[in-house]
Amino acid sequence: MTKKPPTDLRARGLAFWRGVDAGWVLSLDESVLLVEVCRLLDTCDALQEALNRDGVLATGSAGQLRVSPVVGELRACRLAVARMLAQIGLPDQTGATVPSPTTVRARRAARARWGGRDAS
Q1: CA dihedral sign, ordered 75, 78, 82, 84
Q2: Were 42 and a residue from 10, 15, 57, 105 both cysteine, which residue would form a disulfide, CB within 3.0 to 4.6 Å?
């Protein structure tokens, strides 16, 4: 790919960008997703830093302890990263790509239907 990374990336997003840039040639739509994945990785890091600093519990409006809203945001951020990575389809070390949520559901349904045997 060898394109210039977006200037707003932080350490983790920039490292991921460089790793992908060094190893794969992406289409235009995959490149757009890559930028968003890199930004989301940086967002996940910022949310994790907030949890590390402030803790998992927060004080509610009535003074009660409750789970910090950052926990849910971090979970959503990580899920979004996983979905976008599946859309890009980068291979892992074995050459296999990360399966999309639809593929995972289809595999589960096939296993359930065929009594645990893999449908492939």
Answers
A1: positive
A2: 10
